[in-house]
Amino acid sequence: MHSHHPPTVSALRRAATAATVPLLVVGTAAAPAAADAASPAGSTLTVAVAQQVDSFNPFTAQLAVTTNILSHVYDPLVSNDQETSNPAPALAESWDTSDDGLTWTFHLRDDVAFSDGEPLTSDDVAWTFTTIMENEAAAIANGSYVTAFEEVTAPDDHTVVVELSEPQATMESLTIPIVPRHVWEPIVEAEGDAFAEYTGEDLPSVGSGPFVLTAHDRGQSITLEAAPDHWNGAPGFDNLVFRYYAEKDAAVEALRSGEVSFVYELTAAQADALSEASDIAVNFADGKRFQAFTVNPGARTQDGDEFGDGHPALRDRTLRQAIVMAIDNQEIVDKAHGGRATAAGGYIPSRYTDFHWSPEGDEAVLGFDPDAANAMLDEAGYETGDDGVRVSPDGDRLELRMHVHQDRPDNVSAGKVIVERLADIGVEVENLTVDPGVLSDALYAAEYDLIFTGWTVNPDPDYVFGIHTCDALPTEPGTMQGDAYFCNEEYDGLYADQLREYDRAARAEVIHDLQRILYEEAVVNVLTYPDIREAYRTDHIEEGTLLTQPAEGGNIWGQDGYWAFWAAQPAEAGSGPGGGGPSTGVWIGIGAAALVLVAGGAFLVFRRRATAEDRE
Amino acid sequence: MTGSPVAAPPGAQENPSSAPAAAAARGRAGRVLRYIGGRLLTAALSLAGVVVAGFFLFRILPGDPVRAMTEGREVTAEQREELRRQFGLDQPLWQQFLDYALGLFRMDLGTSFQYRRPVAELILDALGPTVLLAGTGTVIAALLGLLLGVRSGWRPGGAADRVNTTVALFFWSVPTFWLGLLLIVLFASGRDPLPGLFPTGGMTTPGVTGAWDVALDTAWHMVLPVTTMVAVIYAQYLMIMRSSLMDEKGADYLTTARAKGLRDTLVRRRHAVPNALLPTVTLIFLNLGQVVSGVILVETVFSWPGLGRLFYSGLSVPDLGLVQGLFVVFAASVIVMNLVADLVYPLLDPRVRP
C-alpha cells in the first residue's frame, strides 16, 4: 500500500545536510588546490574580455575581441607605430611605389619564422592576399583591403609586389594577418565551400606573432603562450590569458580580487571607483570613437527614388545648421560623459593629430549660439506657433523623432540634453530611446529624423569617409552602405583625391576639406570623442610597462598592433595572480566550512538521538 | 507477459466466469493506451507548434544579424552579401523555414551565425555546465524548501513559520542579478576587510588539470552561483509544501493517528508529510523543464558557460540559428518533462489513474 511512498522528512533532512555540507567543504578545500594549479609555468597576464570569440580563422573572424587576440598571433605586413599610431614597418622592412602609384613593392625582413620553425617568406604573403582576392568565403574579414588589388606576386623570397587597378593611399595600413601557406592551403582545399565554417580550433596555432594560441576553453578562457624567438623580441609575460566575463561589473570585481590583471571598456562610474582602489591603476585615453547624430536629409536611392518618412523640413540646410548651433557639445561632455570626453570638432577624433580638423576662426560658422540659430530660422520663414513650436515655410510643424541607443548610457544622457536645447529654438523632439536593433531598422528604412551613430576610427580614416559618398547610397531601400544618406558632389571629388594622394601631409589637407563639408552640410553632426577607460593591477604588471598607443594619452586595449601585452613586464615576484599558497581568505573559508561541518554533524547526531527516543 | 497486472492469464477466456474480468482488463488496457497515446500526441503537436513559432518569432525581432555582426567593421557591400548568402538569409522566408524544418528531422539544428559552428554542437558543449549548476541548485532548493515548508506548515502562524516565510519571500522577490552581484562583492572581490573566498566567475580556473583538481575547482566555482539560485527559488518549494501540509492537518486520519497515542513528530513524519508530498513532487517535475531557461541570469552574472548564457549571447545579435535552436531545445525540455509528469503521476497517485 505504501510502497510508493516518497521519502519521509527525516530522510529528506539527512539528505539535505548530506548534500549541502560536503559541497561547502569540497568548495573551500578546492581553493588552495586551485590557487596552486592556477599558476602555469611562468608569469601570466590575465585580461577580462567581454565578448566571446567567433572564430580563430583569421580569414573570417569579425568580432573586435577576436581580431585583437589574433593580432598577437599573426604579424601583418605593415603595422602602426606604438608611439605615434602612424604606419610603421612590421613584416615589411620598407616599401616603395612606382611613379604611377599602381605598383607597390614590399621588402620583407629575412629573420622571421613561424612558430613551427618554417621561415616566413613572400610566398606566404602573396598566397594570403591572393586567397582573400579569389575566395569569397576567405574575404569575409579583410576583403575591403584588397578591392583594388589586381595581382600579388613574389619575385623572390623577400619581395612582394602588389599591382593595383587604381591608386590607394590606404596601402600603408595593410594590417591583414599573414598566415603560413603550408598550414592553410591544405585547409582551404579540404574545406571548400565550408571554409567559412572552419573555426581554426586546431591548436596550437601556427603564426609568426609574439604569442602562440595554445588553448581555448569555450566560453571561459583563451590561453596564449609567449613565442620567445619573435623577431621583435620576446614578450615580458610567459602566458597571456583572456578570461570571459559576461557582466562588466563582475569583471571589475575580478580585477579587485586579483583574478584578472586588466579590464577595459569601463563605465565612468566603474573607472572612478577603481581610481581609489589600492594596487590598481586606471588609464584614461583619448577616444578613438566619435559620437554623433545624423539628420535625415531626405533619403533616396542611387537612382534618386525617395523613400522613408523623414521630416520634409530637414532637407533645408538652414534648419539643419540651426539644430547644430543650438547644441553645446561641451554641455554633453559634462552632463553625458562626466567630463571624460572631448567636445568634438570635426569628424576625425583629436588623437589623430594630422587628420583631425576643428572649425576655427571664419570656418566656425556653426558654433554654439542659440540666439543666432533663432535669428536664422526667423529669417528663413520658420514661424513660431502658439505652443512655442516652429512651423516650416511649407506648413509642417517642427516635431522631430530622435532615435537613441538605449544600451549606451552616455547616448541616453546626451539625448536628454539635445531635447532641452532644441526646445530653445522651437523644435519639439520626441525622444525614442530604443533597442539597437530597432534603431538599425529605422535607419535602413529611413524612418527617422534625428538618429545617433558613432564609429571607432582606425589610423587610416578612408573607410569612414567612404560611407558618405554617393556610391554608399542604397541601390534599393535597406541596402545602404553608409549611415546618413549623405551625397555631395564636391565631397565625392575630394574623397577620390585623398585616396590617390600618397603624400601624407597633402592627403591630410584633403581630409580636412572633407570634414569641413560634412560640418557645413550638418547631416553628420559629431558631438564628442568619449575617453577610453581601462584599469590594471600594479601588483601584477610593473607600472609603466603596459605601453599605450600612442605614447601620449594612448590606450592599452584595442591597439593597432600588439604593443601593450608584448611589452608588459611582471611586477616584483610574490604578488602576482596565483602566486604562493592559499591566501588568508581561503584559510578563513576553510575554517568557516569546518564550522558548518561540525554543526551539521552535531545536528545529525542530535536528530538520531531524537529518533531513537521516538522509537522507544 | 504473465507478470503484467492488466493482461489476462492464458486460456482465461475459456472460463466463462472470468470473461467479464478479462473484458474489464482489456478495457482498462485500452484506456491506459489511449491516455498515453493522447499525451504523446499532445506533446508532439506542442513541439511542432514550438518549431513554427520559434522560427517566425525570432524573425520578428528588430535588427539585422548581418548588420549587427559587422557593426563598426570596415566591410564592403560584397562582404555583407557574402555573409547573407552563407547564413541563407538571401533565400525567401518559406525556403528558409523549409530548410530549417527538414534539418530538424535530421537532428540538424542549423549553424550559429556568430560562432560559425553547428548549433547542436554548441548546445551539447553548454548542456553539461547548465545541468550541473541547475541540477545542484534545484536539488538543494527543493530539499531546503521541503524541510522548511514542513516546519512552517505544521505550525502555521508560529514564530518559525513567520521567519521562514518572510525570509523565503524576501529572497524570492530579490532580483537574481542584484543578489548575484552582491554575493560577488561580499564573498569574491576581496575588498577590505572582507576576504575573497570564492571566484568571481567562470566554471574552472584556466590551467587546472587532473580530474580531482578540476572537480574541486569546479565545486569551488559553483558555491556562489548555486547559493544565488537556491536563495531565489527555494521559496516556491517551501510555500507549496507548507500549504499542502496545512491542507492535511485537519484530516481525520491524523486524529486517528493521534488517538493511537503517537507523538506529534511521528504523526507529522509518518502520516501527514507523505500525503502532502504528492503535489510537491509534481511541482518539482514540472519545474525541471524550466530550470534550464531559469538559470539565464545566474549564468550571466557568474559567467557560467551554460545554455542560459549562450542564449543571452545569441539574442543581442540576433543570432537566429542559435536562438531558434535553443528555443526548440528549451521548449522541448518543458514539453518532455510535462509528459513525464503526466505519465508518472498516475503511478504515484491511484486516484488519477485512467
UniProtKB/TrEMBL annotation, chain A:
Q: Which GO terms describe its biological process?
A: peptide transport
Q: Name one GO molecular function term.
A: peptide transmembrane transporter activity
Q: Does the keyword Transmembrane apply?
A: yes
Name the family the entry cites.
Answer: Belongs to the bacterial solute-binding protein 5 family.
Task: List keywords of the entry alphabetically.
Answer: Membrane, Signal, Transmembrane, Transmembrane helix, Transport
The protein's name: Peptide/nickel transport system substrate-binding protein
What is the annotated signal peptide range for this record?
1-37
Which InterPro entries does the record associate with it? Peptide/Ni-bd, SBP_5, SBP_5_dom
Asked whether the UniProt record includes Signal among its keywords, one would answer yes
Q: Which organism is it from?
A: Nocardiopsis flavescens
Pfam families reported for this sequence: SBP_bac_5 (PF00496)
Top-level taxon in the UniProt lineage: Bacteria
Q: Where is the Solute-binding protein family domain?
A: 87-465
Cellular component (GO) terms are: ATP-binding cassette (ABC) transporter complex; cell envelope; periplasmic space
Question: What Gene3D superfamilies does the entry give?
Answer: Dipeptide-binding Protein, Domain 3, Periplasmic binding protein-like II
Localization, per the record, is: Cell envelope
Membrane-spanning segments: 585-606
From TrEMBL, chain B:
Which SUPFAM superfamilies has this protein been placed in?
MetI-like
Give the GO terms filed under biological process for this record: transmembrane transport
The protein, known as: Peptide/nickel transport system permease protein
Q: Which UniProt keywords are present, listed alphabetically?
A: Cell membrane, Membrane, Transmembrane, Transmembrane helix, Transport
Membrane topology per the entry is:
Multi-pass membrane protein
Domain of life, per the record? Bacteria
Domain (ABC transmembrane type-1) ranges? 127-341
Where it mainly occurs, coarsely classed, is membrane
Query: Which is one Pfam family of this protein?
Result: BPD_transp_1
Q: Which family does it belong to?
A: Belongs to the binding-protein-dependent transport system permease family.
Identify the stretch annotated as signal peptide in this record.
none
Compartments where located: Cell membrane
| Cited CDD domains | TM_PBP2 (cd06261)
Q: Name one GO cellular component term.
A: plasma membrane
- List all membrane-crossing ranges: 40-61, 126-148, 169-189, 219-240, 276-302, 322-348
Region of interest: Disordered: 1-23
Among PROSITE patterns, the record links this protein to: ABC_TM1
